[in-house]
Write a structure and sequence with these properties.
- By secondary structure, this protein is an all-beta fold.
- Helix content is 0%, strand content 46%.
- It is built from no helices and eleven strands.
- It is globular.
Length: 127
């Protein structure tokens, strides 16, 4: 069992920045693929970014590429999402998730392939 706790959400103006954190319990964090997803009101949960166990590989949704950066600190069991140049359409609840499978499997952008989820942190971007 892995427990995930997100933090760092809030209200920000368009063009601003936020850094989300996701702290994980357990001693095997360093072997997991980690992902960030988001869900806006009335919409399905969508992929935002994913990072391999070592942090050497990452992937982003087209809508956030160049603005968001995913990173991880395995010594702290924490994954981060740095969000810059925020837009109103980035408003959503952001979730981190654990996938107990290698990043090489290629399933990192599918929510159904993740095994554990945090409770989410809300991000609101005002125009």
């Amino acid at each position: 069992q892995v427990q995930l706790v997100e933090s760092g959400g809030g209200l920000v103006q368009a063009g601003g920045s936020l850094r989300l954190s996701c702290a994980a319990s357990g001693s095997t964090f360093s072997v997991y693929t980690m992902g960030w997803f988001r869900q806006a009101p009335g919409k399905e949960r969508e992929f935002v970014a994913a990072i391999s166990s070592t942090g050497g590989r990452s992937s982003y949704a087209g809508s956030v590429k160049g603005r968001f950066t995913i990173s991880r600190d395995n010594a702290k069991n924490t994954v981060y999402l740095q969000m810059n140049s925020l837009k109103p359409e980035d408003t959503a609840v952001y979730y981190c998730a654990v996938q107990r499978r290698s990043y090489s499997s290629g399933d990192y952008d599918s929510a159904k392939e993740y095994d554990y989820w945090g409770q989410g942190t809300r991000v609101t971007v005002s125009a």
